Amino acid sequence: MKNLIILLTLNIMLACQSQNINTMEPTVDNKFETFDQLEKIKFKTIIDKNNLVIRGYLFNNNYVEITSVIPVKYYIETIKDSFFLISKSFYSNNNIKSKGLGFNGDGFPIGIWYYFDEEGKLIKETNYDEPYKFTFEDILKFCEKENIRVDKGPILQSTGFHTTIYRDVENGQPWWEIKRLKTPDTLEIIKLDGITGEVLSRTEQEYINN
Fold first, then answer.
1. Domain ranges within the chain, ordered by starting residue
2. Which of 32, 33, 73 is nearest to 54 (CA)?
3. How many CB atoms lie under 10 A from the CB of residue 49?
4. Cα 33 from Cα 45, distance rounded (Å)
5. pLDDT digits over 57-75, tens only?
6. Are 76 and 86 in contact (CB under 8 A)?
7. What fold is seen in the domain 136-206?
8. Which residues of the chain have pLDDT under 70?
9. 147: which DSSP letter?
10. How far apart are CA 161 and CA 183, in angstroms?
11. Dmax of the chain from CA atoms?
12. DSSP secondary structure, 56-97, as one string
């Protein structure tokens, strides 16, 4: 009887683990920043560095790209073993312009984003998750059920095709799109309702690996 109770407990724990996907979502605050502060970042490895861009890995193995293209400058940090990246943009005077989280594939905004004027004053907060009842975690569960692989970061362009996830709102209707490599030369595109999670369409297109 004791062994039966232990076995049932283990089954319940395993079931809970499969239902609760750890997305390792980082946090972004609404504090003022400047582009100059990025000079304090210490890289473990620098892959590319010139007058316009620095690419490399931090000591925590997060991948970072810092781009300085007038009039806007960008900082993108892809979190290791996470589905998310931290994105920041700066005005030409080096003051923060916007910051928030994005998906590590297509980079669509996730959660609350913060927007500032050129003097550094917080002027707007936008919750990009608000229109969606069918959440990002629900999308990951859908992919798990469909045996669709979704890779965690860092994801680099040189590593081939990775499943992409994108979302948008059209005429007040939120939707999700999943694009995965079904066969070596075929992409499957799945569109889902952003409220109910209902599959709206499944289409295929040719994929040419360059």
1. 35-127, 136-206
2. 73
3. 12
4. 24
5. 999 999 999 998 878 899 9
6. yes
7. Nuclear Transport Factor 2; Chain: A, (3.10.450)
8. 1-24, 157-158, 210
9. T
10. 12
11. 71
12. EEETT--EEEEEEETTEEEEEEEPTTSSEEEEEEE-TTSBEE
